[in-house]
Amino acid sequence: MVSDLTSRRRAILNIIVAEYIATAMPVASETILRNYQLGVSSATIRNDMAYLEQEGFIAKPHTSAGSIPLVKGYRHYVESIAKDTELPLEEQHRIRDSLRNLEETEQWFKVAAAMMARLVGNVALVTFPKARRYHLKHLELVLLHEFLVLLIVVISETVLRQQFLTFSEPVTQEQLTSISNKLNTHYAGLTSSQILAKKLLPTAEEKRVTEAVADMMVAEDELDYHATYLEGLRLMLGQPEFIRKDRMLRIMELMEARDWLKPMLRQQAETEQVQIVIGEESHDESLKDLSLVLSRYGIPQKARGAIGVIGPTRMDYRRAISTVNYMSQVLSYLVSGVYGED
Question: Helix or strand or coil: residue 124?
Answer without folding.
Answer: strand
